[in-house]
Amino acid sequence: MTNREWLNTLTDEEFAEWCIIDHFYKFKQIEGTLENGEKVMIDVPEMNTLREIASTNTSSLGGLINWLKKEHK
Secondary structure of 11-48 in the HEC alphabet? Predict the structure, then answer.
C-alpha cells in the first residue's frame, strides 16, 4: 500500500489530525537494547506529519509528491 492509498483509508477526522497535529503528540513504544544489554522502551513518532514530509526536500511540493508514491510503513 502506498502512502497515497493509506491516506484514503483515514476517516475525515484522522486525515484532519494528520494534516495539522505535531508528531510529538502521537508516540508508539518500541523495545531497544542498550550497549550494556539492558532492555529499554523507546518512544518514537507514530507517523510523519505533513510538515515533516514537506521539509525533507528542498521543494515542499516535490517532497510530498515523492512521499505519496512510497510504500506506507
Answer: CHHHHHHHHHCCHHHCEEEEEEECCCCCEEEEEEECCC
